[in-house]
């Protein structure tokens, strides 16, 4: 099963502070403890000299959907040995050639980070079966595999249920992206772990991304994971370029993947590109999917008693990105931010005081998943950027709806339960929370775009029919759904759903046209009182929300607001006119 909301983060606070911009890439390759399963305020922190992009003596943050990186798109198996009593360090993480490598025999657990390779035969499993694509409004058309990148692989171990780890792959489709090419990188990763007492590996992490790319030739080299002895005298792992006369400009060239002679550079999707990805995955991949897409059509079918075919088709999303800067002199005016900096960024007050007095600038990226506290601290300073940021990705979590083990059993624990996707810059990865009959999903974002227009939210939910019916105690009769958005001040307004439909064992709905900054999307399913156990008579049941909207006028002194909704209410402090 997948661990809920698991994300590997760089242990940024343990890094030495860099003094030059070009130190950033080397810092990213510092030795890290990959068993540190944490969510940090910043996925990367760097101290640097001032430049046009980095103002002097300042601190900054922002959000932008992250890309893959060459170092984090490699297959590797590592062991773990806990820290010995009385010693200082972080425990050992030796690099293992295989699940049975004698070098890792005394490890208390093994962790495998695997990149999913393409399928090369009908009998292959744990592989990418196909990529299809089109511009929205047209049926998707099958693409073809150009090649799997040449980076290190890891062997399968059938006895313990560990699949083979491969490399990212490049595919060609009929759809041209904004970079002027029809090449796309597919990066699918899975994490597996096994304690010494276990005989079988468990799946705990899964993600899939499709990137429009261009291929740049040059003296580029692949990265490799290698074992080092760290500052504590422990075996650990790091990454490095491998080869002769390697160009060390992969960071400057924005390579998201590399191999000998090739840098894979990201581009932007053509607006509203429709993408379909088909994966053969073992049925240990369970729980909830969440990600960046809209108008989702998902299907999971059994290939055999151990593997499923997962097909996800959806339209790409254009996401917001934003940055915030404040000088160290002005930062104390932002109480929440300054308290966080002074108490969490530095191990000692002396180190904090030294940083305050230094001319250096500090920058860190805000993690999109779960960083609601950090967003609240930076929101007054964040300024949206006027640029495209088209993405298509999803990941998995078993952070299932609370208090529903019975429904998980009834719908099948060896199944994908559902998928939630949104264009919100900050979102609550994993499953919606089941509260008072509502499926709640927390979001956060800026109210306006760079041009001053409203930033309009989107939210899609796909849920397995058997799970939803069990959760609500419903029969097999058709369902209806309402969607509302609850603002941070407690006011609630209904949102139009373009379609609510049930097909092939899945219920899907779409919520549109809501605004930010920290709303909660709320979904409630219902059945008519006359519903019986007789199921739908057709393969597809559509139940559009047809309730008529009403417009009311609300006043607060000289301020006037018009609220349109199915059941409109005036915001806090306003009175209905």
TrEMBL record:
Protein name: Unannotated protein
């Amino acid at each position: 099963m997948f661990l809920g909301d698991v994300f590997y983060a760089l242990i940024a606070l343990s890094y030495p502070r860099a003094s030059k911009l070009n130190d950033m890439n080397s810092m990213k390759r510092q030795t890290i403890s990959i068993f540190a399963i944490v969510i940090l305020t910043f996925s990367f922190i760097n101290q640097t000299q001032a430049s046009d992009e980095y103002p002097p003596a300042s601190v900054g943050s922002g959000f932008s959907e992250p890309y893959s990186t060459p170092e984090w798109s490699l297959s590797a198996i590592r062991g773990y040995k806990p820290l010995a009593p009385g010693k200082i360090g972080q425990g050992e993480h030796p690099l293992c050639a295989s699940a049975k490598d004698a070098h890792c025999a005394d490890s208390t657990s093994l962790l495998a980070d695997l990149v999913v390779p393409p399928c090369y035969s009908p009998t292959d499993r744990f592989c990418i079966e196909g990529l299809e694509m089109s511009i929205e409004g047209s049926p998707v058309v099958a693409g073809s595999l150009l090649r799997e990148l040449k980076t290190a692989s890891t062997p399968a171990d059938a006895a313990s249920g560990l699949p083979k780890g491969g490399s990212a792959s490049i595919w060609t489709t009929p759809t041209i992206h904004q970079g002027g090419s029809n090449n796309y990188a597919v990066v699918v990763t899975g994490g597996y772990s096994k304690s010494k007492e276990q005989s079988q590996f468990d799946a705990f992490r899964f993600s899939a991304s499709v990137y429009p790319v261009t291929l740049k030739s040059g003296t580029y080299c692949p990265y490799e994971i290698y074992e080092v002895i760290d500052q504590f005298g422990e075996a650990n792992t790091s990454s490095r370029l491998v080869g002769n006369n390697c160009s060390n400009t992969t960071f400057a060239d924005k390579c998201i993947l590399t191999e000998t002679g090739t840098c894979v550079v990201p581009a932007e999707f053509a607006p509203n590109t429709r993408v379909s990805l088909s994966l053969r995955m073992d049925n240990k991949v369970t729980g909830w999917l969440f990600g960046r897409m809209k108008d989702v059509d998902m299907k999971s079918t059994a290939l055999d008693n151990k593997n499923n075919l997962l097909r996800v088709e959806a339209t790409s999303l254009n996401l917001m990105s934003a940055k915030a800067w404040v000088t160290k002199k002005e930062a104390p005016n932002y109480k929440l931010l300054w308290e966080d900096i002074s108490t969490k960024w530095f191990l000692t007050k002396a180190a904090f005081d030294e940083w305050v007095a230094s001319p250096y600038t500090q920058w860190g990226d805000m993690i999109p998943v779960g960083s609601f506290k950090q967003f609240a601290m930076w929101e007054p300073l964040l300024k949206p950027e006027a640029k495209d940021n088209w993405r298509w990705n999803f990941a998995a979590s078993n952070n299932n709806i609370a208090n529903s083990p019975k429904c998980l059993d009834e719908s099948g624990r060896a199944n994908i339960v559902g998928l939630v996707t949104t264009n919100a810059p900050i979102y609550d990865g994993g499953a919606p929370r089941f509260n008072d009959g509502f499926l709640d999903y927390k979001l956060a974002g800026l109210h306006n775009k760079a041009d001053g227009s409203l930033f309009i939210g989107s939210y899609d939910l796909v849920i397995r029919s058997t799970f939803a019916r069990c959760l609500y105690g419903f029969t097999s009769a058709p369902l209806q759904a309402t969607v509302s958005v609850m603002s941070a001040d407690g006011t609630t307004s209904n949102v139009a759903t373009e379609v609510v439909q049930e097909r092939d064992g899945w219920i899907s709905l779409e919520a549109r046209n809501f605004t930010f900054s920290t709303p909660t999307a709320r979904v409630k399913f219902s059945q008519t009182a006359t519903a019986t156990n007789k199921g739908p008579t057709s393969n597809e049941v559509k139940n559009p929300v047809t309730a008529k909207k009403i417009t009311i006028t609300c006043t607060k002194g000289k301020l006037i607001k018009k609220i349109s909704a199915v059941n409109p209410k005036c915001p806090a402090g306003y009175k209905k006119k």
